[in-house]
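Entry 14. Structure prediction run on the chain below.
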Amino acid sequence: GLTDYEVWFTALRRDQSPTRRDIQFSAPFKLPSEKTIQKIVPLADWSMKDVWIYAQENDIPLLPLYEKGYSSIGCAPCTTLPTLEGDDRSGRWGGKKLECGIHLQSTG
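Output returned:
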């Protein structure tokens, strides 16, 4: 897990959902173990278009699931095709939540 590290880099973006709108580029993040690490979010102000342009310009291979219509890809049990037009993340978690537990800080 993350307890073995001091810094965590993620690819979250502010444009992905309302819960990510105020993401900072760098912030302390409290783990369930009570340890606090630094969470770094270098793509916070990128758009989906910025990501696609960067991938194309740098010959970054894309997952074949994008060609099948998936627009937000996570772990297998939590990822399905989008259910709402215009909402790229509507296929995540069966529409039951907005955020994966890994990105929620411990409050204990």
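The radius of gyration is 15 Å.
Filed with the rest of this week's runs.
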